[in-house]
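Table S5 (text form). Sequence records supplied for joint modeling of the two-component complex.
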Amino acid sequence: MSAPHSETHVDSVGTYVKVLLALMFCTVLTTWVAYIDLGAFSTVIALSIASVKMLLVAMFFMHVRHSSKLTKLVVVGALMWLGILLVLTMTDFVTRNM
Amino acid sequence: MSNHAHSESLELRVQFDTAEQQRDASTLGMWLFLVTEVMFFGGMFAAYTVYRNLYPEVFAICSSSLNAVLGAVNTCVLLLSSFTMVMAVRAGQLGQQKAIIWFLILTLLFGGIFLGVKAVEWKEKFDEHHIPGQAAFHLEGLQQADQGHAQLFFSLYFAMTGLHALHMVIGAGILLGLILHAKQGRYSASYYTPVDVAGLYWHFVDVIWIFLFPLLYLIDRHLGK
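The corresponding structure-token record, covering 323 residues in total, follows.
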């Protein structure tokens, strides 16, 4: 039987349980806050909470914090391409005379 | 360790120098696939952004017709499945073969519950005539002129949750394969890469839902009260 690789970082069960509880708390929070009138800020808050949840899942469940620099670069690259897609699409739509 | 040029193993194929290099290559490959998936879903999020921007009030009223509590509960079920998935990967890291199987089965179970709830929600839409393209489509509280814009919301709703559910079904198929292989004792502390990369896929599908839930279910909920 070979031991786990020294490079493999094994997180504790406690860490994963805490992340799960944080994710569930965020889910309750985003549902609760949606019923409060915050005007345009509602969307900002909803997306901020979703982004925090995404970060938690990526960093802990997807092991990004233990990943190689190259993998981290690819993850950031994904967000960058998505940003280009959304931002450039919207610069078109919000500047049209409709 | 014997000379890997002569004896190929699951954890060290001939084209790699070390097992670590092979694992990094698998992880990187999966992440590159996920980048293409981000762009795939990204097109839908872009369409959503454009139309919500054009018809904010209609989207808010349509959103409030969805069952937010059921959506929130289902989100928690999916988060729970991500937890059991990462526990399966952890069991792989530690070489606990029984635990891998059980956590994979739990993940499959929670994924199944999520899809079941989704099916109930979709059925409700059919009963309420909230299906885009239906001649009988009618959303209460909207003028006739806005019914078309409401259909746009529901087109996006079904396309986005449908594509997400399709990814879940594919994920469930992958989980089944993993469970069968895990039962054959294929995975150990030195080789659990399939569990690892399937985990990345499963968590990615979870992240998509994390954004779908507030964007589809939670637009200006206070208006309905």
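Note: Chain B touches chain A through 57 residues (CB under 8 Å).
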